[in-house]
Every structure is written in structure tokens, then in C-alpha cells.
């Protein structure tokens, strides 16, 4: 896997690849949901994971 790719487990046991495109600043996924709607729960999961991580850093204090 590349640095900008993540493997995500689907609800039915399939494995999907979510990829970050730094040029267009968006995620893509190889699942059918993303293919038809240009959004899916897999890209949402990865995006929220990073947002949560960034919020944790912003709230941290150095003592």
C-alpha cells in the first residue's frame, strides 16, 4: 500500500482501498457505493479518523 492508501474492511467482509488524492484534495474508494455516488462509508470512516486524530492534537497541551 502507498502512503496515501488505506485498506478498509467492508460490512460484508470485502476489503476496499481508500485513496487520498492530494491534488484534488479528496478521497476515493473502489467500492460500488463510491463508484455510483462519489461518496461512501469507507471514505467517511478514513476522513473522520484523521479529523479525530487532529482534534486530539489540537487539544493536547505540553506541560
UniProtKB/TrEMBL annotation:
SWIM-type domain location: 16-51
Source species of the chain: marine metagenome
PROSITE patterns: ZF_SWIM
Name the UniProt record assigns to this protein: SWIM-type domain-containing protein
InterPro entries assigned to the protein according to its UniProt record, in alphabetical order: Znf_SWIM (IPR007527)
One Gene Ontology molecular-function label: zinc ion binding
Amino acid at each position: 500500500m502507498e502512503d496515501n492508501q488505506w485498506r478498509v474492511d467492508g460490512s460484508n467482509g470485502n476489503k476496499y482501498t481508500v485513496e487520498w488524492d492530494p491534488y484534488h484534495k479528496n478521497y476515493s474508494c473502489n467500492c460500488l457505493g463510491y463508484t455510483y455516488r462519489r461518496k461512501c462509508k469507507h471514505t467517511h470512516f478514513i476522513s473522520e479518523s484523521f479529523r479525530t486524530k487532529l482534534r486530539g492534537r489540537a487539544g493536547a497541551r505540553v506541560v
